[in-house]
Amino acid sequence: MSILVIDIGTSGLRAGVVRQDGTITSFHYEPCPPSSPFPGLVEFDAQVMADAALRVCNLALNDCRKSDVIDAVGITNQRASTVLWSKSTGKPLGPALGWQDLRTVMECITAKAEHGLLLAPNQTATKAAWMLQNYVVAKKLDPSDVRIGTVDSWIASVLSDGALHITDSTNAGVTGLCSPDARTWSKRICGLLNIDTASLPRIINSSGVVGNASALPGAPPIAALIGDQQSSLIGQGCITPGATKITFGTGGMLNVFTGDVGPTQMRRSEHGTFPIVAYSDADSMHWAAEAIMLSAGTNIEWLRDDLGIIPSSDQSHDIAAQVTDSGGVMFVPALFGLGTPYWDYGARGTLLGLTRGSNRSHIVRAVLEGIAHLGADMLEAALSDTQLSTNSLRVDGGMSRNPTFIQALANTTGRIIQVSPVAEATTLGAAFLAGVAVGTWPSISEATSTWKPVKTVAPNATVDRAQWHEAVNRSRGWISSLSALDF
């Protein structure tokens, strides 16, 4: 008894089969990176994504057909990226817009000034409005034939041969288009943006059978849809109040499970975190808070590809480990600005404390430690906003395999770090939710009990956080016009 999971990331997608003991087999990956035709624009071909999704799913199914019975399909995905397609043909109406796309910054500013709407350009709302204007109105297409969706909606439509137009509450809740309870679309917001709610998907629970994946052999039931960060939270077993995970990939996302009481408004909290739906099922809605690091692994790519001082990302640990400390060097990883708790889009990466004795090992270690400091900032902000506490952090993502970084994170947070047994826990979360829906596991607590850390790391040194905050202050406001933006 197993679950097929299709996991659609920002730069690629994968499919794997999760067994009842929580192990992942039949794993297949295909790159599917977005394009950037101009600075600030991020697009992708939704049809290319759909074709790749079907390929990796079929490869995974072919691998396991003789040894596993597939109970259900789970879908997890990059959030807020937006697709418009034709209901009648099933084909995209134009390039899909990635969540990083910034072409609607002015629309967000206008929405705030004219209507008091607090929308960010990385949300779906203004992306969908822009696409409707440019793909439908400008081309005089029939608006009643238009479907609007996030990536989960698109993949569910593809897998069901167009029968399903759905999204779950974790994805709907970050679009900027729904009510605070994340169960219905806001007629006011959609009306102000000229978005017909009839074109939007039906909002469903994250866990529950909704239809069949008729495009796949055997037409297994689709039983879970969930956003990638929430899926990672569930995949690492963080389902009690205060349980916290951080995913360190291209960026960094911290989520702390808060319970079954939702927020009164879906907007940024005092210390820079956001309320999000952790997952929903037939019984209730479960909530979390989210903190965002705009660049994490991107800083390692910068060391590798732009500065050329490390030959590969994996070797950042080996090079940093050649010194016992950074020699007084500090790095603020603000290559795209600072997220939680600062929210300063005009901050920029800052390297301080250099001397004639500073070498590449000091710089590489400073970069790893700077990312860890931001991780500690996110944790402090999330715990302040939620009034919860935690003694440990669960960590996944590519950087979770870097021992120097994980030790630095333990030291800056003063918490025990539990490293996920799989680098991408998103696959596990979607599998657990789908499996519970079809009886593979009797409950979500039973499913997540299969999670065990591959490594546990405790703090072994004290860290000068005051000097870190001074470094952050010096990085802020570098591009004043961007620092003035507030979403």
Low-confidence stretches: none
The oligomeric status of these chains comes to single chain
Strand order across the largest sheet: 15-16-14-13-19-20-21
CATH structural architecture of the largest domain: 2-Layer Sandwich
CATH topology of the largest domain, what is it called? Answer: Nucleotidyltransferase, domain 5
State the separation between the terminal residues, measured CA to CA: 45 Å
What's the CATH class of the largest domain, please? Alpha Beta
Q: What structural class do you assign from the helix and strand content?
A: alpha/beta
Number of helices: 15
Query: What's the total number of strands?
Result: 21
Q: What is the helix content?
A: 25-40%
CATH superfamily of the largest domain: ATPase, nucleotide binding domain
Word description of this protein:
The protein has helices at residues 46-64, 105-115, 124-137, 151-159, 169-172, 187-192, 228-235, 297-307, 315-320, 360-386, 403-413, 426-438, 444-448, 465-475, 480-483, and strands at 2-8, 12-19, 24-31, 43-44, 70-77, 82-86, 96-97, 146-150, 166-168, 202-204, 207-212, 221-227, 244-248, 252-259, 274-280, 285-293, 330-332, 350-352, 392-396, 416-419, 455-457. The mean pLDDT is 95. The longest helix is centred in the last third of the chain and has 27 residues, at 360-386. It has 487 residues and is of the alpha/beta class.
